[in-house]
Design brief:
- The strands form three sheets. Strands 1, 11, 12, 13, 14, 17, 18, 19 and 20 form a nine-stranded mixed beta sheet that branches. Strands 2-3-4-5-6-8-9-10 form an eight-stranded parallel β-barrel, surrounded by six helices.
- The chain is 29% helix and 23% strand.
- By secondary structure, the protein is α/β, with parallel strands linked by helices.
- It has twelve helices and 20 strands.
Amino acid sequence: MTRPSSLRPDLIDAALASVRKLGTPLWLYEANLIRERAGQLAMFDCVRYAQKANSNTHVLRLLRSLGVFVDAVSLGEIERALVAGYDPHSPAHEIVFTADIIDEATLQRVVELGIPVNCGSPDMLRQIGQKAKGHPVWLRINPGFGHGHSRKTNTGGPSSKHGIWHEEFEDSLRLVDEYGLTLIGLHMHIGSGVDYAHLHKVCDAMLDAVRRADRPLQAISAGGGLSLPYKAGEPEIDIAEYHAAWDRTRREAEAITGGPVRLELEPGRYLVGNAGILIAEVRAVKKVADKHFVLIDAGFSDLARPAMYGSHHDIAFVTAAGEPVAGPETPIAVAGPLCESGDVFTQQEGGFVEFREMPLPKTGDFAILRDAGAYGATMSSNYNSRPLAPEVMLDGGALTVIRKRQSIAQLLALEEGAGPL
């Protein structure tokens, strides 16, 4: 998939048709782009969607129809997967729970449903073993190093809370044996973004763990973190090269274990990131020194990635008639309505405001923030008592509301009927 440098006219038309019915801000996803991404990963034995990227049940149903299984990181995500039709009792283990801790309510549910747990700590193994001997588990290993496009997306190494530290691996295997747990496989997700030298280092670390495990395994998981192009001209990940590296690792693992080993992948944003946009209305344009701030009615309560990671999202301005805003380019920062200095969509990591050269819009125009399908709606909040924005799916030219706009009354309803504990 090549990321286009400009928005397609049909997508702009769909966006404006949606906001005319539902207002702004609003999320819009393209089903065909999700299908295309899923098809690119068909060479893997099992693709397991990290639904934290976008857990809308309609997105889950679409992916399930494509043969993509699911990963859940909370009790709520387990229940979403069930509503979307995933079968926890299938021999293929359509749902896996991955976390560094497991609370009592979630523990009870995974035991009840027989959902395998990808364990990120020895304490998880003890808690599962005490509750249900023989329960299926994975071991998520922190090999002592990591990688990520931001310090906050690096999920390996001594500064990461994720996974079982590699020096505790043998102790964790002893816990598996002590409680008679069923070890399905080993998992190693250590950060987002793809660097091929780093990739081979991860593969070597996985083989070292397979040797140290010294027992049959059903599967190994390459984890997730597949990169996406967020700017025009950025390179696409070479899925064939990525698969080839892990397929060689799988074959060597089979030689070590003496049996077949399934190769799993756990993508999140790769499947949905480029498929989503956030549409907001321009509500104010003001000059500050020799630059301009364009203020829109979406904030980091809607799309948190720029404020949290300094992440880049291309922004296009269109008129109410759907025409791209034209005119001379001028330095522009795009910001939201929240009572926070950090509520800026054009910023770099560390909070440094970035002024981009763009044609200046006017109030009543619309801003379209691109590549917002992952970690957009799922990270939204009610900060400043702002209701969650609606979500719409575009599929074959048809528009479907897949989440209604939350109302202020729904927010306040949770606080009604207060009384003594």
